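In the previous chapter we treated chains in isolation. Here, by contrast, the input contains two separate entities that must be folded as one system, with a combined length of 439 residues.
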Amino acid sequence: MISNNFVLNVIRFISLVLVQVLIFNKLNFFGYINPMVYILFLYWYPIKQNKELFIVLCFVLGLFIDFFSDTMAINTAATVTIAFLRPSIMRFVFGVNYEFQSFKLGNATRLQQFTFLIVLIVIHHLMYFILEIFSFGNIFLILKKVFSISLATLVLCTLFSSLFSVAKE
Amino acid sequence: MQQIINFIIRYRSFLLYVFFMLISIAFTIQTHSFHQSNFFNSSSWITGTIYSASNSVTSYFDLEDENRLLLEENKQLRYLLFNSQEKNAVQLDSIKQSYTITSGQIIKNSYALHRNYLTINKGENDSVFPDMGVISSKGIIGIVENTSNNFARVQSILNANSSINAKLKNTNIIGSLKWNEESYNVVQLIDIQRHVQLNVGDTIVTGSQSSIFPENIPIGTINKFSLDTAKSFWRIDVALFNDMTNLKNVYIIDNKNKAEILKLEEDSND
């Protein structure tokens, strides 16, 4: 069971990196919208797992994306941030249920899953674009990018997550 | 001591987060300055191999367009060759040539970020090294920044750090070419004195002060111009000849006299 889980996560990791850099980084919808679907790794990752290992994994994930897209280390910073905040976000979204040992992502309601995804995406994108633009003189540019790209990421992530369901994991 | 260890154990995920965050911010800030970005770049072996594998599939889709472009360029070069007055147009003695040209293909392009980089499939094994110029048949693209054995990363002119010497065609009025990060087909030419007469549609080419590009490589045409805030220089928007979103075949230019020019400039600065 553990090894099964491990293999599944490795496959997810590699395929999300490849899908991100080979397909979605080249999308350039309207000239600047490149959805970041690799956030799904953080959405799908098993809940009751070692927190520290998870942060290290997300660091490596962000590093790979940065290597490929020449974006310095801003993907890494944004990904590590949501990896660290994930337990708090889950407590906020799923409430007390989350504390139970038997809780699974698939058991939550659709609305809760959706909210969880939205919060992850918005925090990640906010962090990402603040670091990318690196000055608050461009606050409207940051907000415009965060809004439009979050929307695109959300649509694609929702499609992907319903395509590859994690219900009974 | 016990308390310190307890503290570390209790807040271990927070400390881990702070540690990784500091690492990534250090990398980000370090790469803001030129020529230190050796770690984070797509010219490394693994990324280059994956990109060229993907490129070997996707490059078939636009073969027809690329062939047409190359044919047009050949036509132009033939025209120049047949109409040139000089009899020995091709100099065979390699010592007398000041530029060498390598051809390459772009395997990764980006133009939607603030600091855009391209990756090409030529590296040190093909004698491509940092600070060489990269152009396409229509105009300039950027400058090589990092190289590995088989790949090179090119700083695009659509990069906030980019600064290239440029001038008005057929004059010696020079300025520098920057990008204000707004549109991927418009760059800015600054440092042109206000007494200079400008017209919309004037052609901008590379200047003679650059040790990277030869003179008179086309860049674009003047789109609009206005005075800067100090009212002493023009701020010119230049519409690029190149479509930066659709690039494939490029030429990498090496100035053989570059080392000599740089050494001379360095000596005279001392």
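The two ends of chain A are 10 Å apart (CA to CA). Chain A is about 70% helix and 0% strand. Compare these points with the single-chain example from earlier in the chapter.
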